[in-house]
Amino acid sequence: MKIIECPRDAMQGMKEFIPTEQKVKYINQLLQVGFDTIDFGSFVSPKAIPQMSDTAEVLANLELESTSSKLLAIVANVRGAEEAAQHKEIAYLGFPLSVSETFQQRNTNKSITEAMQQLAQIQDICQKHGKVLVTYISMGFGNPYGDPWDADTVIRFVEQLHKLQVQIISLSDTIGVSDPDKISNLFKHLIPAFEGIEFGAHLHTTPTTWQEKVEAAYQAGCRRFDGALRGYGGCPMAKDELVGNMPTESLVGYFENIGLNLSLNKAAFAGAMRLSEAVFS
């Protein structure tokens, strides 16, 4: 079981800039918990995401000697990938690829065709620099724009990524519209059909629907889950203030209740929960 903690996703939409030293303190605390991966920042245009303009500075101040957690950074184009790939501390580069043409334009200012071309180049950069590309299929369960969506569309995207030898694909419920049937059907089809790909779940949710989504993904064979402490963050296009990231504490509680040993440092986890209140207040 892999838990990916996503402070980057929680922070990036906040209008008030979080001081760099506060980000560093928070992420250093998260690094002590024992999560598989920390999605810590992004190498994107500071005009597009001002909150992430200090990612390189944050990285330079992280305490990585005593952690087993790996670092993931989001990139939106080749230039960002080239910059991120220069940092030996980063293990994963994440790229958001949408099955919604409208959202792809809004999120990365590219068409889906252009994004696919960029993704192929980013995969090449990753392979040359010893990084692993994580591709997020955003709007993977539907979209609010009226763009076509069905399971076959998602499967076709996965087939294209498979040809590029992408090793990790995270299905992203960007606006919280997934339901247990959609989640179960996609993972049950994709996981056995593409044995060389590790599939993850990046699920946005309301406080009342998180468990049914986690349960559906887990029972369908998913063993990689993204979350953010207290469910902070989410998608500003969700049109529902209750839709946020999957709360990590809910993920942890669910998996421990069904008997899984996540090997997390409980004291460090409690400390991160306390710190999160100050960071996101």
UniProtKB/TrEMBL annotation:
Descriptive protein name:
Hydroxymethylglutaryl-CoA lyase
- Using the record's annotation, list all stretches that form the Pyruvate carboxyltransferase domain: 1-266
- Family membership: Belongs to the HMG-CoA lyase family.
Q: Does the keyword Metal-binding apply?
A: yes
Q: Which organism is it from?
A: Pontibacter ummariensis
Q: Which Gene3D superfamilies match?
A: Aldolase class I
Which InterPro entries does the record cross-reference, listed alphabetically? Aldolase_TIM, HMGL, PYR_CT
| Highest rank taxon of the organism | Bacteria
Alphabetized, the UniProt keywords read: Lyase, Metal-binding
Query: A single Gene Ontology molecular function, please?
Result: hydroxymethylglutaryl-CoA lyase activity
Q: Per the UniProt entry, what are the Gene Ontology biological process annotations, in alphabetical order?
A: ketone body biosynthetic process; L-leucine catabolic process
Residues annotated as signal peptide: none
Q: What SUPFAM superfamilies does the entry give? A: Aldolase (SSF51569)
